Amino acid sequence: MGSSCFARGNDENLEIIEQYIKENNLDTTVEITGSRCDNICTHGPNINIDGVQYYGVDKKKLMELLNE
């Protein structure tokens, strides 16, 4: 949710995630939470899924993660 990650593309990633959840009827099983700066801004956009941190998440990488 930090401004650096959003400037690097997490605003688009958030839209993709929300759409993916909606299209796959996962809204009752998936919780999206945001966090502020984790002091790893230069590696962004960053996404944490189930405690695993992913760096430099572009649309292609995000879709791979979501489908996994």
Q: What order do the helices and strands come in, and which of them pair?
A:
Layout: H1 3-23, E1 47-49, E2 52-54, H2 59-67
Antiparallel strand pairs: 1-2
Helix pairs in contact: 1-2
Q: Please give the alpha-carbon distance between the first and last residues.
A: 23 Å
Approximately how much helix is present in the residues? Answer: 40-55%
Q: Which regions are unreliable across 5 or more consecutive residues at pLDDT < 50?
A: none
Described by the principal axes of the CA atoms, the overall outline is globular
Structural class: mainly alpha
| Largest sheet data | 2 strands, antiparallel
Detailed description of the structure:
The protein has 68 residues and is mostly helical. Helices cover 44% and strands 9% of the residues. It has a two-stranded antiparallel ribbon with strand order 1-2. β1 (47-49) and β2 form a beta hairpin. α1 (3-23) crosses α2. The radius of gyration is 12 Å and the shape is globular. The relative contact order is 0.22.
Identify the notable features of this structure and list them briefly.
two-stranded antiparallel sheet, mainly alpha, 2 strands, 68 residues, 44% helix, 9% strand
Summarize the model shown.
The protein has 68 residues and is mainly alpha-helical. The protein is 44% helix and 9% strand.
